[in-house]
Amino acid sequence: MKILHIGSYNRNLGDNAALYNVRLEFDKFIKDIEWESSDIHEDFWTKRNDQELTIKKLNQGFDCVVVGGGGLIEYRGYESHDTKYKLPFNKRVLESIDCPVFFVGLGINYFRGLEGFSDEAALSLKETFLHSSGFSLRNDGSEAIFRNITGLKSEEIPDPGLIYDFESPDKQYITRSLIQPAFNNNDKQNQGRYGSSENIISLVGFAEDNHLSAFPHTPKDFKYFKNFLVDKLEMSENLKFKNTLGFTKLYMCFDSVVAMRGHGQLISIGLNVPGIYLSTQDKVRDFSFLNGFAKYNVDIKQENWLETLKVKHKNLTVDKDYLEEWYSIRHKNMKVWKDKFNSFIESCAKKIN
């Protein structure tokens, strides 16, 4: 069985983890898969999503194509592509491929201040959904955005970054804590995230006052903080796809996290590491509110966000009831999430065999 797996490789721990876990789940249902990685940046973006090149790339004797996970549905910055959005798919492309194509737990990435799809991009996304062999979105509010864009309803499953066959034990006390930062190269995106440079300075001060180690997911995260868990040289090695599992397990060396990236939130929850979720993107806030973690979320748009963050972080370390409630919410969710994820992948596998 030969499967082409499209995603964003070796740039961000969260994307690597989502891709890695998708493969692990498919491997449970199909024996002896020969996986071939296809990086969406190198294989498609550099060609501006040229449809003829896409079709040629995908018609090379694969038994199926798997796309995702990861936040691969975006519009801003991809307006010039043939499909008018980030994915290289529309009706014409999918009808020209001679094997099934599955989209697994994808996220729709909206950065604050840069929301929205053009009519052309919305049509391509709608066509991709209608002409896929299986399509699912992750449980961070992406499905509601999809309905708003297309008028259609997609299946919703947990982000693959949430699903593991192992986890940390429940902790009685919180001692070692992380902060998982989120920065962008784009100044407008950073402005949308933080609102002001003063907010960033306050956040750095909070991390230093609480002796938090910073866990970057991508080279873009090496800003402002000092006490990084890995340096840039280690990051370049750890971000190789083959090293995903070991890098991800670093979360399990800590008792809690202040997570800012979507996958910082999701991976830590999947590994049973309690956290406070500092929303600088709607997807972090929406995941918290949609999945029972509202009491553990802080939005940087709140006027008193810093004081709220301090209180909630302290509560996680000293309030036993607050900590136990986090575990209760997480454990209840995990059973449902694992069943949904397993069911979707099993349904895809049946369409291949």
List strands and helices in order, with pairings:
Layout: E1 2-7, H1 13-29, E2 34-39, H2 40-43, H3 51-58, E3 64-67, E4 70-73, H4 91-95, E5 101-108, H5 119-130, E6 134-138, H6 142-150, E7 155-157, E8 177-180, H7 187-194, H8 197-209, E9 213-214, H9 232-238, H10 244-248, E10 256-259, H11 262-270, E11 275-279, H12 282-290, E12 297-299, H13 305-318, H14 320-352
Parallel strand pairs: 1-2, 1-3, 3-5, 4-5, 5-6, 6-7, 8-9, 8-10, 10-11, 11-12
Helix pairs in contact: 1-11, 1-14
Structure description:
By secondary structure, the chain is of the alpha/beta class. α1 (13-29) crosses α11 and α1 crosses α14 (320-352). 44% of the residues are buried. Helices cover 43% and strands 15% of the residues. α5 links the parallel β5 (101-108) and β6. The strands form 2 sheets. Strands 1, 2, 3, 4, 5, 6 and 7 form a 7-stranded parallel β-sheet that branches. It has a 5-stranded parallel β-sheet with strand order 9-8-10-11-12, sandwiched between helices. It has helices spanning 13-29, 40-43, 51-58, 91-95, 119-130, 142-150, 187-194, 197-209, 232-238, 244-248, 262-270, 282-290, 305-318, 320-352, and strands at 2-7, 34-39, 64-67, 70-73, 101-108, 134-138, 155-157, 177-180, 213-214, 256-259, 275-279, 297-299. The chain starts with a strand and ends with a helix. The protein folds into 2 domains: 2-162 and 335-352, Rossmann fold (3-Layer(aba) Sandwich), CATH 3.40.50; 177-333, 3-Layer(aba) Sandwich (Rossmann fold).
